[in-house]
Every structure is written in structure tokens, then in C-alpha cells.
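WARN retry 2 of 3 for item q-0093 after timeout on previous attempt; input resubmitted unchanged.
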Amino acid sequence: MALKIPVKAGAISNLTDARFFASYEVDMLGFCLDPQNENYISPQEAQAIKAWISGPKIVAEFANQDEENVLNIIDFLQVNVIQLSADYSEQFIKQLQEKGLQIILDFSTATPDTILDVLQIENISYYIITETQFEEIKILQNKNVIVLIQSENHLNHYPAIQLNGFKEKSIGIKLFEFEGNVLDGILE
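OK item q-0093 returned
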């Protein structure tokens, strides 16, 4: 059974998460490659997990790295989709687009002013926003948005959603109650 709307699973840091989300045939799996983030995974670990998964597009998620480091990781992982925080320059985003990469901009922690400035950049594949931003910043409702959900409410109201992975209690041991309920709720 297919999902009714596109789903991105982000912050994947272990094979258990990756296999769970891939079994639901999500559209994208994202690896947080920001060493300052609690969900950080090294490029080598991401590459190892990537080798075990087929189906979803693999997304390299960046927030605080310098541009040269981002380029090196992209070359190493050989991904086609890049997720960037709203802090990266328009010039750098265009440089990535010229390489044929799809760009997702993460607005989930951005201010409304930053969002309005960055919306001027063309050819962005998706924008990640919170449920509150979706309701409050009406201009975003006309864009390709992925809503970072925190509840099971209004799932069919959103054009696409993101669920995040989380740390294992011990290797291979996890409960996906919330994530499973959300994904089951949007199965066709």
C-alpha cells in the first residue's frame, strides 16, 4: 500500500530507523550531517546505512557546516538531494543547483523575515516548516512544503510531512508507536 502524501524521514541515525521508514516506502530518508546536532551521524555511518536501503531518495541534511565541508560530504555520499538551513547563501544554493542537486530549505527554526527573504531563491524543491508556520505564514501554503509534524492531527491537511528518527535504546530495540500511527493513518 502506498502513502497518500509524500513523506520525508529525517535525522536518521541508525539502520533500525532507516529500515522502518523504508518499509513504508517513504519518499526520502535524511541523514543529519551537522556535528552540532544531537542526531548527528558521520558521513561514513550514513554511507554504511545507505548501502542497506533501496527505494527512498537519500537526503544529506546540513545546518552549521562550512560550504567546503558540505561539498566534500556530498561528493563522498553521492546524494541527489540536499537539505540546508536558511542560513546558507543564495550563491551557494545556486552553486549546488548547478550541480544538478535538488534543494530542500529547512525553515523550521527560521524567523518570518528570514523566510520571506529566502523565498526569493528560485527552483527550491521543498521547504521544511513547522505546523505553526504552515498555519501562520500563509504564503508558505502555496509552496512545496514538508511539514515537520509533532501530532497526528490534520495529517491529510498537509501536502507532505516529515517524521524524524531517534536514538535507539539499544541496538535494534525501538518502539515506533507515534511514527507507525502517523504512517498507517496516511496509507491508501
